[in-house]
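Sample 1 of the test manifest.
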Amino acid sequence: MKSLIIIPAYNEEKNIKNTVSKIVELNNPNIDYIVINDGSTDKTLQILINNNYNFIDLPTNLGIGGAVQTGYKYALYHNYDIAIQFDGDGQHNSEYIDNLIEEIERGNDLVIGSRFINKSNGFKSTKLRRFGSIILSTLIKLCTKEKITDSTSGFRACNKKIIALFSEDYPNDYPEPDTIVKIIKNKLTVKEIPVVMNERKEGKSSINVIKSIYYMIKVCLSIIISSLSTKEEK
Amino acid sequence: MPINLRVFLLIVVISFILLILHTIKKKRLLLKYALLWIASSLFMIISILFPQFLILLCKLLGIELVSNLVFLIGFLILLVLTFVLTIIVSEQKKKIILLVEETAIIKKELKEIKDQKKSN
């Protein structure tokens, strides 16, 4: 099965080379990658050109949702069987990519790399974000009756069905929890596997403390609306 | 309502309608979006020509001062208009995102074709 790794990158000049070279090191002929440069204002684009990486350059900044959706569209147009989201900031470990693909091949529609499924080592994010994660898990459990431990994880793989679905419609800001609910409501299967993530090496995360509350309100609302709207369609 | 005030208001509203029509003609405003403005202008004209209508409405709603009713209606019209505007902005944002995504993919494919030509 042909897999495409989608790497969204916004101002990741310090991390992007490291991230891509780890993917290239996998040296798997069935795995391609594509970097989506989301209108970066630093030297990200220059690095992508100089190293002759496979990339798409968005003419303006769309935000994470638009960048990732571009990747899904590219996967759809090039007929990939599996698409894998992989952050450009070095938080995700390429060694788990095979595990994600394996679970897709077993018939799961969406596979999420979760930090919280095992109490293993590795970067677990700040206390505030963990607390937020617990709230989101509870809300998703209420809406869908399924247990998702790490709904905000941007490290996930999906099959052709979901590639088509995401190409059609993908929410723009902080899209991960929202899309999980939509997928469960569409009667597709979601599976979590344990992964270890690293702390961001360079640069700031896209979510800071001040924005957290605003983020939580938006995400909670989008989860509730997603779970309601899909019910009505049936 | 004193006659001079009514004449003044009528002139203002009619000039506003003319402005709307002019803007549509110049293709700076889509007819679809102008309808709300035209509808609210027509309501204003009715109120100016037949103020009894407003007084009747006041009695029906239990409002004592006509001016309060006028403010209420004005506020509601603006509320609807801004809501419609946010819907339009959201629709446009969605379309822009779609366009940016597709152009970026086309840009990439075009570059690939050009590179292939060069190497041949």
